[in-house]
Amino acid sequence: MTVTTSAVNAAFDRVDSFLQSAPVLEVLFARRLAGRSEPEDAETADILAAELLAMRAEDGSWEGSLVRTAESLLLLGQLLHDQKREERCNTSVAWLLHQKDQPGRFAERCTPDRHKLSICAHFMEGFFSPGPRQDSFEHLTLSNGLLLRDDEDARLAASALALRAIARWSDLPADLAWQLRAMDNLATMSFRPVYKPVIGAGAFTVVLSALVSIEQTPERRELLQAAFNRLVALQRGDGSWPDLEAVHAAELLLLAVENGYSSQALEGALQRCAELLVVTQHENGSWSNVPDPQRTYIGWRILRHAAFSEKANTPR
């Protein structure tokens, strides 16, 4: 695929124009990231955060859902990006912590295949449960549009989201060490073909997004760098991935770059993804026939990163 720098810049301009004209909260994040925040944006973000908190139940959850609660706390983290602690989030963090080791958590069951891979209850503890086993979470769609078709994948992703949300607003309790070790082990398994029948690529992206968002020990950095390299190696020449939508793979790689994992290989993968977005973009700047602010914002970030990288590498 051959896409010129001018084509990438033009695609970014189209999505930027589309996003800036849309009445969605993602425009606040885009303006902030681009250094174009308007005077009223901070007040708008505070109002939206208050409205989101007003939708919370008395027990601290949103709709009694692990995923909804974790994603709401992460959204609050974006709206209140300059705050490291927020007392109003304490009850929600406590609610999430109460779901740890409850029935229905990932790896609760043991099968011969899972036992052989050390991803069953005999080896993994400390995961959060999105609900009992009689409640199927097949075809769970996260707020970023990631579809988790398998119930066990959804339970793993839900637990990883909860861990990431807790880490955003509080120190991680010592008794989460079990889950952290287990997730580090899962990271070493990520994007290896031998594990595809057991854990899907989408679930791995959520696990790695959580791990890259918390404290980075030298050991964790090494295993995450290897995981990102494997993800890059799986990318096709046209910028797509065999078992994962390009926007979700690229969203993870962007998060990796933002947390200090930049490399020539990662930058190349993001550039190829940007080129794919160029050729699949609609004339109005979006990539969907229905309103999809999250996907549009992710596409905006990918194209902006590619355009910025091109400018930075252009000889003067």
CATH-derived architecture:
Alpha/alpha barrel
The coarse overall form would be globular
Total of helices: 13
User: What is the structural class?
Assistant: mainly alpha
Please report the distance between the alpha carbons of the first and last residues: 26 Å
Average pLDDT confidence is 92
Order of helices and strands: HHHHHHEEHHHHHHH
Beta-strand percentage range: under 5%
Q: What summary fits the major beta sheet?
A: 2 strands, antiparallel
Radius of gyration: 20 Å
The counted number of beta strands is 2
Helix content: 55-70%
CATH classification class:
Mainly Alpha
| Widest sheet: strand ordering | 1-2
Enumerate the spans where pLDDT stays under 50 for 5 or more consecutive residues.
Answer: none
User: In CATH terms, what is the fold-level topology?
Assistant: Glycosyltransferase
How many domains would you count in the coordinates?
A: 1
Task: Describe the structure in your own words.
The chain contains 13 helices and 2 strands, in the order ααααααββααααααα. The protein starts with a helix and ends with a helix. Strands 1-2 form a two-stranded antiparallel sheet. It is 56% helix and 1% strand. It has a single domain (5-313), classed as Alpha/alpha barrel (Glycosyltransferase). Strand 1 and strand 2 (147-148) form a beta hairpin. It has 316 residues and is mainly α.
